[in-house]
Amino acid sequence: MEKFTYVRHSFAVGMIVQKFGGSSVADAEGMKRVAQRIVATKRAGHDVVVVVSAMGDTTDELIELANQVSPMPSGRELDMLLTAGERISMALLAMAISNLGHEARSFTGSQAGIITDSAHGRARVIDVSPGRIQEALDQGAIAIVAGFQGVSQDTKDITTLGRGGSDTTAVALAAALDADVCEIYTDVDGVFSADPRIVPAARQLKSVTYEEMLELAASGAKVLHLRCVEYARRFDLPIHVRSSFSNKEGTWVVKDYPEGADMEQAILAGVAHDRSEAKITIVGVPDRPGVAAAIFRSLADAAINLDMIVQNVSAAATGRTDISFTLPKTEGQTGVATLKKIQGEVGFESLIYDDQIGKLSLVGAGMRSHPGISATLFGAMSDAGINIEMITTSEIRISILCRESDLDRAVQAAHTAFNLDSDQVEAVVYGGSGR
Length: 435
Known about the structure:
The chain is an alpha/beta fold. The chain has a domain at 15-187: Acetylglutamate kinase-like (Carbamate kinase, 3-Layer(aba) Sandwich), CATH 3.40.1160.10. It is built from twelve helices and 20 strands. The chain has helices spanning 28-43, 58-69, 75-99, 131-138, 165-176, 210-218, 226-235, 291-301, 332-341, 343-346, 373-383, 407-417; strands spanning 15-20, 47-52, 104-107, 114-116, 125-128, 142-146, 149-152, 158-160, 181-186, 207-209, 239-243, 251-254, 270-274, 277-286, 309-311, 320-328, 350-354, 357-363, 390-394, 397-403. The strands form four sheets. Strands 3-6-2-1-9-11-12-10 form an eight-stranded mixed β-sheet, sandwiched between helices. A four-stranded mixed β-sheet has the order 5-4-7-8.
């Protein structure tokens, strides 16, 4: 079999790992449609491994059921319950493929050799031993693997990988099997320059780099999960984002743009947004060495993930300053409680908690060599009457904070200001979730 080589719109592959999300296998008809696509890939001469999510909203329904039974279910038992959703999908999909005349064998995460740490609900993959998967492939079968799950190396308990877990399962398996490409099938036609639900004129990207996709995912883009892209970058594994509802080309996520490519958009890959964060402002912080360290050490000890951090210049008259940072809304109250515990030790005056914020991020490798990006962004926000509350930057990203109620207008204004709007509506969300 010819090894993968990257030529724009031309990929020769030998082993393919395909991942199908919950919207793609939401019902029996979806299962049959997915099975036909898998069989077509097999008939084309490729070895095929498939990672599948739970059907539709099954995981959410199981969580709701657990909460009805117990207000605080144990992590171990909740993981045992939630992994049932993917096991249902994998068995049904194997049946549908068998009905088309091809052998398919289904495997749980543990049977597929997905070894994790013991953090229930958010386990991380630490090793993959896909011996049984390789054996099935060697015998001509299609291997179907339950996504989102593994087995703890220490306790041998079943674990789940958390948000985006099936994407991570697929990329981890592809890397361990030395696959040529990992195809992520979702209910949109690829990666777009903005969320098409907010910007109908968003354009589809033909290719995007790992670096840009990491920034987009970290900034709120939902089409690929951050951990999945990190894994792919580590192993230099190409990801092909496609729709299971159409035969369009999709988007390739790769190390570098192909030689001679126009990069679709010279400066920006896209505009991402995030409504899931809250902001805490610590008012009247003594401006002396060690204070900021004590504040952020306490938050780290509480396992709180921080995003944007801004410290004001200290007031000469008081020797005090304000520190603001963002964190997930789900961790907001824990963050406030953690800081109140150290108020006496640190000596700050008060806390302000705000969960009505939205984050907008511009991402693009071309930002390195194009001055004036900030001026254009801030001008667009000014023209749209949107107040900017915080600003942070990286080498290929600029993020701003605004009111959540202004976020949609901010995304639309930025997208237009950087000439990202397509002349025609390209985006179709077939299943409704964007995953």
